[in-house]
Design goal:
Elements: E1 2-7, H1 11-25, E2 30-31, E3 40-45, H2 50-69, E4 74-79, H3 80-92, E5 98-101, H4 108-114, E6 138-142, E7 144-145, H5 156-160, E8 164-165, H6 168-180, E9 185-189, H7 206-216, E10 221-225, H8 234-242, E11 246-251, H9 259-265, H10 271-284, E12 289-296, H11 303-316, E13 320-325, H12 343-366, E14 372-384, E15 396-402, E16 407-416, E17 420-428, H13 437-442
Parallel strand pairs: 1-2, 1-3, 3-4, 4-5, 6-9, 9-10, 10-11, 11-12, 12-13, 15-17
Antiparallel strand pairs: 7-8, 14-15, 14-16, 16-17
Helix pairs in contact: 6-7, 7-8, 11-12
Length: about 450
């Protein structure tokens, strides 16, 4: 069976897709890059906001068209949007053979076997994820599932359930297996990394997990993606500042800066608290890069609220800001509020915020010119610096090509188009110590527990 995976949405979906792929390959499937060549097309959907839902539906419809016109025998839709809207999707999209929500991952193979679309296992499944992209150097590791936060605008708890932290032994084991597959950068992902361990009785929290990953792997870069500022502790900052292999980078969503809007959003902190924490973070971790996320057009957001957000962003000087317009999501608290900011006003505010942050980022990046720093080579002359997270923070173009997956020491020579860099290669750095294969074999792997 030739299988194509179409993954939409966040990096947590990327992890889930790699688990789906591992299950299928163990039953004789072969991954193909072009969905037009596939016999089975799987669309891993996102249901976070309306734009993501529309993208997911478009992908499913396109897959159905390939089924009617090409080699595909079946189309499967999985993931977050299916978790919430399975019945409506099944009625609207009869060309889809199987719908499975995010909580039904383990049903994929049995349901495909029922339909005669996949055979018996051809290998013993060891719980190893299989990379679904072009190079295994950059990998994502999900350390928990679900969310207990009560943000008014967010439907993730309705799609992913309550927060559940995975056992540290399982996480370390998976990290070691990803290293054996070639991982050079490990991006830790969850709905809130800082919430890790609070539901467990072993006393392990994110700082202890980071120390274990540093101790038990040789992966050169370990990056924290998506932490609420409320959970970023002095102990966590101390670990980040002490361990050179933990990238000095925080992806920390604030969503807004007006106290009135933050209260309606049911966010845990207010403007002054965020301001004080950002200052403490930067004092504790020199050269720390902070990325954040904002929503514009939330119900009741006045012109004054929006101006307060712009002033705050200009004051805080975050390295990068991701932003999107509010759209009501069924079942959330915010959906009961009047969506009273017109769409054209939302778009205009988004454009203004984007332009402001473009200038802020360009100014901060200008200060990087002349710095000597490590870069991870993605392909030839394309690389990333420590403050450039995969796929969201721009790229660095090298003056000469270097091997994919290698680390190079560079001198930053220019800022390009506000968000990217040019750099001169000074040295190709030696590879890290060999992965600890013996230790990897010893650790247990409860692979089926991940992603539930």
């Amino acid at each position: 069976m030739r299988v194509a995976l179409i993954t939409l949405g966040c990096d947590k979906n990327t992890v889930d897709s790699e688990r789906y792929l591992a299950q299928l390959v163990d039953h004789g499937a072969v991954q193909v890059a072009d969905a037009a060549d596939a016999e089975l097309i799987i669309v891993n959907t996102c249901g976070f906001i309306d734009a993501a839902k529309a993208e997911s539906i478009d992908a499913i419809v396109q897959a159905g068209r390939m089924k009617s016109e090409g080699a595909a025998q079946a189309v499967v839709a999985v993931g977050c949007m299916v978790e919430r809207h399975k019945d409506e999707l099944a009625e609207a999209l009869p060309e889809v053979d199987l719908f499975l929500g995010a909580s039904e991952m383990e049903q994929l193979v049995p349901r495909l076997r029922e339909r005669g679309l996949i055979g018996d296992p051809v290998t013993e499944h060891p719980g190893v994820r299989l990379y679904a992209g072009a190079t295994p150097a950059v990998r994502y590791l999900k350390i928990s599932e679900g969310c207990d936060h009560g943000c008014a605008f967010c439907a993730i708890p309705l799609m992913r359930g309550r927060h559940r932290s995975f056992a540290i032994a399982d996480i370390v084991r998976e990290a070691q297996l990803l290293e054996l597959q070639g991982a050079r950068e490990l991006n830790l992902v969850a709905q809130d990394l800082a919430h890790y361990g609070r539901d467990r009785q072993d006393g392990v929290r994110l700082p202890e997990l980071l120390e274990a990953l540093v101790r038990e792997t040789s992966i050169p870069w370990i990056r924290n993606m998506y932490l609420y500022s409320a959970g970023i502790t002095p102990r966590l900052l101390e670990v980040i500042a002490r361990e050179p292999r933990i990238v000095r980078y925080l992806d920390m969503p604030i969503q807004h800066a007006s106290d009135a809007v933050l209260e309606r959003m049911r966010r845990p902190e207010r403007e002054q608290t965020i301001r004080e924490k950002v200052a403490r973070f930067r004092d504790a971790v020199p050269e720390l890069a902070i990325r954040t996320t904002c929503i514009v057009g939330f119900p009741g957001e006045s012109a004054g609220d929006f101006e307060r957000l712009l002033e705050f962003l200009e004051e805080m000087q975050f390295e990068r800001v991701g932003a999107f317009t509010y759209s009501p999501q069924e079942g959330t608290r915010a959906a009961t509020l009047v969506d009273d900011v017109p769409e054209d006003v939302k778009r205009e505010r988004l454009e203004r915020l984007t332009e402001l942050q473009r200038a802020v980022t360009a100014e901060r990046y200008e200060r990087r010119i002349g710095q000597r720093v490590r870069a991870l080579v993605e392909d030839g002359r394309r690389a990333r610096l420590p403050w450039q997270a995969d796929d969201i923070d721009g790229i660095t173009t090298l003056d000469v090509p270097a091997p994919a997956g290698a680390f190079v020491e560079v001198e930053v020579t220019d800022v390009v188009d506000d968000y990217d860099f040019d750099a001169r290669v000074l040295e190709v750095l030696p590879a890290p110590a060999a992965p600890r294969t013996e230790r990897s074999r010893e650790l247990p792997m409860a692979g089926a527990s991940f992603g539930r």
